Amino acid sequence: MSEEFYRIKRLPPYVFAEVNRLKAAYRAEGMDIIDFGMGNPDMDTPPHIVEKLIDTVRKPRTHRYSSSKGIPGLRRAQAGYYARRFDVKLDPETEIIATLGSKEGLANLAMAITAPGDVMLVPNPSYPIHPYGFMIAGGTLRHIQTLQDGRFQPEAYMQALDRAVAHSVPKPVALVVSFPSNPTAQLADLEFYKELIRFAKKHHLWVLSDLAYSEIYFDDNPPPSILQIDGARDVAVEFTSLSKTFSMPGWRMGFAVGNERLIAALTRIKSYLDYGAFTPVQVAAAAALNGPDDCISEIRQTYKSRRDVLVEAMGRAGWDIPPPPATMFAWAPIPPAFAAMGSMAFSKMLLKEAEVAVSPGVGFGEYGEGYVRLGLVENEHRIRQAARNIRKVLGDSQAMLARYNPANMDAD
Known about the structure:
7-stranded mixed beta sheet, 13% strand
């Protein structure tokens, strides 16, 4: 009875738990923590979406069980979004399912398609559900390094995939991609997706594409969908979310779209697990997708302004952070003077000495070491304050390095 449960035992220690524990302790002591750690959107959900929820929830018939695959109007709204945004025509009945955020959809699809021991190709660094959804389901992970010198280079990535397939026994079943990427904010183009689909078909792989940040981009080229590639629906399914697009994180509304067989598998698994989101939430989500898109532009512009302030203010503080082209995150190399500390020790130091919380890169996989992730979830005033605090820490590097020598970190 004392042995740990099988699936819990397979999961590695949660790296972010230590930072979160310290953050809570310091706040309890009265410290004003400026929190760039969690990617939790802080902007209000647009009023017309909230009003639609309120109007709908007043109707008693909407208080009953809903549909786990999503009400028809919501699935039609998602089909309309894909038609407008990507010129991709989807069948709402067979190629779309509503999920409780993209995270739940990814995890349950992993459960649906993974047999014990199946090899899955997952990005590293990566949003944790991409590898650990498969691990929880009993799969075996093969990590694919996604960055070279901090940047996504498609040719190197495809070479890594080739090596992984050649040296995996048994042969891999599926691969995961995520662009725009959380945590690295990197982008991919249609040429890369075309090559990826060719590769997947050659090696009989399913492709799971996470497109949760489809609308958070900062140049004139909106991120594409993998389903824009001819024949992609033969092997691919894609996940999107309203959490960032409409600042609706707590509403837990997302979608899986694409390959009919994968959508059917996810639909069947979900039919055993849930009755779908609360119907008024689904109705409001449909109103979001069918409604005006000026609110999307406003949310995007807010993130862009915060990005620009972050990059400029941290640069003046002595920390050069590459401007992310998309997402609500900056993927920042640890300043050279502190690089030997590693991302965990550097994050703990910033928390204690600068009252600034960031996410250690190693929490997103071994290839995330040397970086930290900063979420654009504080206003511009707080970003500038964080930069002033960090400037003091970076300017006193010798004392900080002595104080946070790895040999002394366990006692801190």
